[in-house]
């Protein structure tokens, strides 16, 4: 069977581990391609866009690093950012698996790899972008809505009881307090320090001097290359084909639940809070607006 080769288009679509088995049997090197698409959040998607978190990606990453003849793992990143904790958890898991398998990881920025999206890209040993990719935003942002006027208008009474004066900081149904904003700013500064340290550790002396790279600014791909935020310009297919000409580029996707594969679900059932009280409705709407705003921040 040494001379027998199965097309990548076939082996990448076979069920279970059969594709991996055939790939190993033919001696073909494998480059696993993992798509990291969407806002980074521990919550389920409030709108029809994918969400990135460790819970949804754990098995995907394990499968990506599993092939016996693994040559590399490619991360295709398209994310405006989101949760710092989930960004760190996913990136750390990638680094742990890469160290265990001793294989290179390459990241490819598509429309945007900003904020937490760039944190994920830095989990790779090399980062590539398109000339039109938006890269950077090494900073921390918090956003929300003040809804106290809205519930007053509709005659809704907010009932909130706490033990501990700091338990309900920045409640969107209460007026904003200066001391709460000062507390939030302190947290943001600590997170920004962590983000800066991560990028500095991963990119090292590739980062350009003389430009503040950590002020939250974003750049297009070519400028990001000049600043050392990425290593080169090119798409995943172009770079991987050149670097690993004999390898099968194998997409590793998140497996959908059975009901989703059968076409079940959707409609109002996708928004569990809409069937509940006013708080549930408001929080679902806020989550949807936050997600949309995260993309719109970069013109997407």
Structure description:
Strand 4, helix 4 and strand 5 form a beta-alpha-beta unit. The protein is elongated. Strands 1, 4, 5, 6, 7, 8, 9 and 10 form an 8-stranded mixed beta sheet that branches. A two-stranded parallel sheet has the order 2-3. The N terminus is likely disordered. The protein is 39% helix and 16% strand. It has one domain: 2-enoyl-CoA Hydratase, Chain A, domain 1 (Alpha-Beta Complex), CATH 3.90.226.10. The protein has 300 residues and is α/β, with parallel strands linked by helices. Helix 3 runs parallel beside helix 4. It has 11 helices and 10 strands. The N and C termini lie far apart (49 Å).
Radius of gyration: 22 Å
Strand content: 15-25%
Number of domains: 1
State the name of the first-level CATH class: Alpha Beta
